[in-house]
Specification:
Length: 319
C-alpha cells in the first residue's frame, strides 16, 4: 500500500472535561473519553472520510502504545479508510494522552502525557511508502513534540519530493507560543515553509510566523515566501484564500451552526481542503467545502467527526 495522501506525527487519545469551565484541579469532576485525537491523526481521518468519492488513498505514520487507547485510535482511522500499516506499536510506552479542559471564552487547557506519541522517528519513513504520494501534510505539533518526530517530518518532505517532484506539501503551523518560544517556532518551521505549497494557518499563527500584527498583512507576506496558497482559517467567519492571482484574498463565509466543541476544526478543515485541491476544484469551491467540514466538526463533541462526504454536500447545498 502506497497512499496518495500521507500525514505523520502524534496519535493520542483525548479525555475531555464533560462540562465547560471545569478546572482540571477540581477533584472528582467528570471527564468524557477516550476520544481519538492528535492533530495529524485528525487531519488524515478527515481527508480519508472526504476522499472516498475521488479514489484518493490515505495513510498515516506514527506510534501508539500496546494498550486499549492505541486500539481506540487505530480502530477509528481504519474504519474511516486510513491505511494504518505504518503505525508502529511500541511496547515500552503508553499511547499519548491529552486531558483537555475547554472554557466558554474559547480558551483550552491541556495536561499532556506524550508517551508513544513523540516516538515517530526517521526510521519510520520508508521510501517505498511514498511511491504514489500526491500530498504530504505536515503539522507544526509534529515538529515540536520531539526531535525525532521533527526529523521524521523533514525526512518525509525530502523523500516525498524525490518520489514526486510535483508533490503538494501542505503545512498547518499549529504551534503555540505558550509551549515554545516564537524564535524556536520560526526556526523549526523554516525547513517546512521553504517547501510548502499550501500553508494553512490561523490568524495568530500567521502573525507569529510573519512577525506582523495584522493577520491579513501576515498572510500576504507569507505568500511572498513561496507557498502557492495561504489559507487563513477564521473560525465561524470561514476562511480567506491568498494566491498569486488573488493577492488580496478570496473571502469565503463560514456556515452558521451551533458550536458544541471546536476541538479539531482546523485539522478537519485542512483534510477537506487538500481533498478539494487534489480533486482539481476552483478555490471558492474548495474553501466552501473545507468550511462545511469545519462547521460539521464544531457541531459534534470530540476531536474527530464521523460525518460522510454526502453529509458535507448536503450542508453546502442548504446554504
Ligand atoms: P484548531 O484549534 O482546530 O487548530 P484553527 O484555529 O486552526 O483551529 P478555526 O479557524 O478555529 O481553525 O476552524 C477551522 C475552520 O472550521 C474555520 O475556518 C471554519 O471553516 C470552521 N469553523 C470553526 N469554528 C466554526 C464555527 N463556530 N462555526 C462554523 N464554522 C466554524
Ligand atoms: Mg489549527
Amino acid at each position: 500500500m502506497s497512499p496518495n495522501i500521507i500525514c505523520l506525527g502524534e496519535i493520542l487519545v483525548e479525555i475531555m472535561r464533560s462540562e465547560k469551565d471545569t478546572h482540571h484541579g477540581i477533584i472528582g469532576a467528570s471527564y468524557k473519553g477516550p476520544f481519538p485525537s492528535g492533530a495529524p491523526a485528525i487531519f488524515i481521518d478527515s481527508a480519508s472520510r472526504m476522499s472516498k468519492s475521488f479514489n484518493l488513498s490515505t495513510g498515516f505514520i506514527g506510534v501508539v502504545g500496546n494498550d486499549e487507547f492505541g486500539e481506540v485510535v487505530l480502530k477509528k482511522l481504519k474504519s474511516d479508510g486510513v491505511d494504518i500499516s505504518k503505525i508502529r506499536i511500541d511496547n515500552s510506552k503508553t499511547t499519548g494522552i491529552a486531558f483537555n479542559q475547554y472554557n466558554s471564552d474559547g480558551t483550552r487547557k491541556f495536561i499532556f502525557a506524550a508517551g508513544a506519541a513523540g516516538q515517530t522517528s526517521p526510521d519510520d519513513i520508508d521510501e517505498e511508502y511514498f511511491s504514489n504520494i500526491k500530498c504530504l501534510h505536515i503539522m507544526g505539533s509534529a515538529l515540536s513534540i520531539s526531535e525525532s518526530s521533527r526529523e521524521a517530518c523533514y525526512k518525509a518532505i525530502e523523500i516525498a519530493k524525490n518520489q514526486n517532484p510535483k508533490v503538494v506539501i501542505s503545512f498547518d503551523p499549529n504551534l503555540r507560543p505558550e509551549m515554545l518560544e516564537i524564535k524556536t517556532i520560526i526556526t523549526i518551521s523554516k525547513p517546512v515553509l521553504e517547501n510548502t505549497t499550501i500553508l494553512l494557518p490561523s490568524g495568530e499563527e500567521a502573525k507569529m510566523l510573519a512577525g506582523i500584527k495584522s493577520a491579513e498583512k501576515a498572510c500576504k507576506k507569507l505568500l511572498k515566501m513561496g507557498p502557492k496558497l495561504v489559507v487563513l482559517k477564521q473560525g465561524k467567519d470561514g476562511c480567506t484564500i491568498y494566491s498569486s492571482e488573488e493577492t488580496n484574498g478570496i473571502k469565503i463565509e463560514g456556515f452558521e451552526v451551533e458550536e458544541i466543541d471546536p476541538t479539531g476544526a482546523g485539522d478537519s478543515f485542512d483534510g477537506a481542503f487538500i481533498v478539494g485541491y487534489l480533486a482539481g476544484w476552483n478555490l471558492k469551491m474548495i474553501g466552501k467545502f473545507a468550511n462545511a467540514v469545519g462547521a460539521l466538526k464544531v457541531k459534534c463533541f470530540g476531536p474527530m467527526a464521523n460525518n460522510s462526504y454526502e453529509e458535507v454536500l448536503k450542508l453546502m447545498e442548504s446554504a
